[in-house]
Specification:
single chain, alpha+beta, 5-stranded antiparallel sheet, 23 helices, 49% helix, extended, disordered N terminus
Length: 631
């Protein structure tokens, strides 16, 4: 019984992630939309959501899931076509609400915004705000605090629009009991598995059947536009770069990088808060400074605040102080001598008087680690130089691809029949490991497809490039009938076999449900199989188990069938166990689930109205979200 709720909780958590994560990762959408041109997938009024927007937010979401689960998750369970479509729905809804809030000039207060941002997880857990982590996270995402906070304000304003839609407090008890029984009951069935191939001997296919199929399904037969290419892969990890790291290199690196960048400081401070922007306590601060300079021992009397709640001897870097207190504060502290008291340091929120406790160096590198850092830096520089030379060879010297391959000891590869979606028509060619990325395909098929040279250097990652030459352009065409008629005949046989199997299944069901049971049919049914919602049934596909739990019936046994790709199942529903529980916790969970769903339907009705109001339009490019490669 509780296994159901454990599994349910797992998916509720995933759903919760989808609904909460956009608060952070959807925030950049409005800003991105203004500056990035890409394929439009959705238009909302006079603004668009592009494929780039989706890719950026969805990639961030996937990385967040992996990070939060500490990689302890099969990401294929999350990154599915259904998940991508659901994520796009939430992206559309967020943009609709944001746009409505902007148009109606709805906003939220600074206090609401601060409380919301502080409640998010910035690396120390939820409701444990860290300013340094906050700034670092935004910096790594390429967003400034001001831009982020403006977008979050808009996001919260949009959510205000649906806050008034309360969850309905009334839910009919009979309806609740019905859902409870349906969700917890166990059904026992017996099955007959009919494979369509078993009926192939009973169908006949004439030449006219094949010809009609060929004429009616030209679009399915069309070979799309494709190109034939030669290419080289430049991988920094696989290219031999021979050089030594000397002790002199280590000493120079140490002096230049480690000593300066790893200095830290420990300090105490006196803090005098500003009353407001018009009345500053500069006089009060000056009086205190005069007293502690005359008698340094009095500093402790006024030091009502120490760094991190009086945790003395904590050391902080210059960047940390700059991020948390401002560049001027950081500069003054790092120029103090041990025991020295600073002058008054003014910041946005008040005045500080700092007493430096100790200077230190936070050095944790060994000689071998420094050598490794230098090696990687030199390797990066040499690789960049190599790429520059190759670029000259391609665009200025017009070197042949084979000559470049020989010069760099690389293998030249070929790919025949590469299509715009990254597919390869000739399945006998080598596996297409590099040309499935949408950005690379855009470059190949848009940027230099019709250049005279048909020759380019494409970056796959920071350490991997590909040199591509397009040898031929192959226009789309429909293959001649004689070339494909044998393949079409197999398709027609398969379709006729399926139609015949379904026809016989329907005839048998009518007979069974009317009480006419054919002889020798009993031994064709399987042994009893138990099915429950949200629980995998052994030996049958999930689609069959789901179908069984949705079967409506007037009496038992009851017969029905379900058609799948390879065959169909005749289903005999012979027993239903009503496992109704009286556990209060389970009943409460069910009530919450259904109440939430009922309230959400009202919210979605309002969002659908807004979508219609802004003439929401979906473009054909929306299908490209299924082909995005998420790293």
């Amino acid at each position: 019984m509780f296994e159901f709720f454990r599994k349910k909780s797992r998916w509720i958590v995933l759903i919760a992630i989808i609904l909460i994560i956009p608060a952070i990762f959807f925030s950049g959408i409005m800003m991105i939309n203004k500056s990035h041109k890409d394929k439009k997938i959705v238009s909302i009024g006079n603004s668009n959501i592009t494929l780039f927007d989706f890719e950026k937010t969805y990639s961030s979401f996937i990385r967040k899931v992996i990070s939060d689960t500490k990689d302890d998750i099969d990401i294929s369970l999350v990154d599915t076509p259904k998940m991508r479509k659901s994520f796009l729905e939430e992206l559309i809804n967020s943009n609709v609400l944001n746009k409505t809030a902007l148009d109606l000039k709805i906003s939220v207060s600074d206090d609401v915004l601060c409380k919301y941002i502080s409640s998010l997880d910035w690396g120390n857990g939820y409701n444990n705000f860290s300013k340094s982590n906050y700034i670092s996270a935004l910096r790594s995402a390429g967003i400034t605090p001001r831009e982020f906070e403006e977008d979050q304000r808009t996001y919260l304003a949009g959510r205000k629009l649906i806050n008034f839609i309360a969850i309905s407090p009334i839910f009919p008890e009979k309806l609740l009991d019905h859902f409870t029984r349906s969700s917890l009951q166990k059904r026992t069935v017996r099955l007959i598995d009919y494979k369509y191939k078993k009926f192939e001997d009973e169908v006949s296919v004439q030449e006219d059947d094949v010809l009609v199929w060929y004429k009616n399904n030209n679009e399915l037969l069309e070979i799309p536009f494709n190109i034939d290419i030669d290419y080289l892969i430049l991988d920094q990890d696989n290219i031999s770069l021979d050089f030594d790291i000397t002790d002199s290199d280590v000493d120079h690196f140490y002096d230049k990088n480690i000593l300066g960048n790893n200095e830290v400081r420990s300090f105490d401070y006196i803090y005098i808060k500003k009353k407001d922007d018009r009345l500053l306590d500069i006089g009060n601060a000056s009086n205190i400074l005069e007293l502690v300079v005359q008698d340094p021992n009095k500093f402790e009397s006024f030091a009502i605040s120490k760094v991190n709640n009086s945790q003395i001897n904590n050391f902080y870097s210059k960047d940390h102080l700059s991020d948390n207190y401002g560049p001027e504060f950081s500069e003054i502290v790092f120029n103090l001598k041990e025991g020295e008291i600073s002058n008054i340091i003014e910041t946005n929120d008040g005045f500080y008087i700092v007493k430096l406790i100790k200077k230190a160096n936070n050095i944790s590198y060994t000689k071998d680690q420094i050598k490794d850092i230098i090696f990687k830096q030199k390797k990066n520089l040499l690789f960049v130089d190599l790429i520059s030379k190759i670029r000259d060879s391609i665009y200025y010297d017009n070197k042949d691809l084979s000559a470049i391959a020989t010069e760099l000891s690389l293998k030249k590869h070929s790919l025949y029949g590469l299509t715009r979606d990254g597919g390869v028509i000739n399945s006998d060619d080598i596996k297409n490991n590099y040309f499935k990325d949408r950005k690379i395909l855009n470059i190949l098929f848009n940027d230099f497809l019709y250049n005279d040279r048909n020759y380019n250097l494409v970056q796959l990652s920071s350490t991997k490039f590909v040199i591509v030459r397009i040898n031929s352009l192959n226009e789309a065409f429909i293959p001649p009938y004689d070339l494909v008629k044998d393949s079409i005949k197999k398709v027609v046989i398969s379709e006729k076999s399926r139609d015949l199997a379904i026809k016989k299944a329907k005839e048998l069901l009518i007979s069974l449900n009317n009480g006419n049971f054919p002889k020798n049919l009993s031994n064709k049914f399987s042994k009893p199989i138990e099915c429950m919602r949200n629980k995998e049934s052994i030996g049958i596909p999930t689609e069959v188990s789901d179908f069984v739990m949705k079967m409506s019936h007037s009496k038992l046994p009851f017969y029905d069938f379900i058609s799948l790709d390879s065959g169909l199942y005749i289903i005999k529903l012979e027993k239903i166990d009503e496992n109704i529980t009286h556990d209060d916790d389970i009943n409460k969970n069910f009530r919450k689930i259904f109440f939430d769903s009922y309230g959400k339907s009202e919210s979605m009705a309002f969002i659908r109205y807004l979508r219609d109001n802004y003439n929401l339009r979906l473009f054909d490019n929306i299908n490209d979200i299924l082909n995005l490669k998420i790293d």
